[in-house]
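Run: sequence + pyridoxal-5'-phosphate -> complex structure.
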Amino acid sequence: MWRYREAIPLFEDKNIISFDEGFTPLLPIKFGTKTVWIKQDHLFPTGSYKDRGASVLVSKIKELGVPSVVEDSSGNAGCAIAAYCASARVQCRIFVPQDTSAGKLAQIQFYGAQLNKIPGSREYTAQAVLGAAEKNYYASHSWNPFFFQGTKTFAFEVCEQLGWKAPDSLVVPVGNGTLLLGAFIGFNELMAAGLIRKIPKIIGVQAASCAPLYRAFKENSEEILKIDKEDTVAEGIAVAAPIRGKQILEAVKKSMGAFIIVDDLEIKESLRCLCAMGFYIEPTSAATIAGLSKYLESSNPDEIVLSVFTGHGLKTTEKMLKILGESSPGILL
Ligand SMILES: Cc1ncc(COP(=O)(O)O)c(C=O)c1O
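>> structure
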């Protein structure tokens, strides 16, 4: 992704922390009668697209000479920040919800980060990190703008891979919106540079049991209303109070997009189907594709639709095994 070096706000190349990540494959995959471009962002070094943001943010952290950072995460961003901090030799403490997948917890610790498991929901974890962030640099993937300077490369890659053309629509998962907003920034920069002619319609996918953005959009509210969150297998998007919620709503509206919700049954069916096609992704990524299937019901036959696999299934083995042990009500895709 550092092929777009000129567009990334870092002063000196010597501060770049990179595993030569990015430019992930873009595959045309058939869903029913329609073909969709799927970006394989589960193939990043730490197993999720969060490496885009971590590479830029930790490079900036190195440039600033920051010795230690804290971060809160549902797991994947924590893994990414921990890995890049290991490479940059920056001390790192990661806060995660207690029920985060064991694979992600192991990964964070193997990278040498200190792990703080917080009982309760993702919101308690976000609260718990704030005290530590008063004394340490807050390498937050949700708050820190440099993270989004990394995730914007998603849009650059997609357009380059399509022959410097934007897709008509983009279906992405959304919790705190790091991919959605990053992509929106990237497409806007390409527009401003005269490289593409339009911003794709952005469709954000949320879990039905935790869908504050869907609800605000549906009720035409500019504020993110408080919701009663319930459990979902899609741990990566289980965010009840997205801190950039207003910004996400604005981006989706500007793009003429929308939000779609999917329930756990649909997510699990989508996961089974994708794995049966040879794609081993985590349940959060399967939620996106369940949403994509719903979107395709009303998309135009000639529309160029693009979506993404955001996280690798190997990180969530115990959740995958549990789903494997449950009976399947039938194929939905
Ligand atoms: C695999 C995966 N997909 C999607 C998301 C959603 O990202 P965001 O909360 O930034 O919208 C996450 C977040 O952790 C994730 O781990």
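>> summary
The chain has a mean pLDDT of 96. Residues 48, 74, 76-77, 173-179, 236-237, 239, 282, 284-285, 310-311 surround pyridoxal-5'-phosphate (CB under 6 Å).
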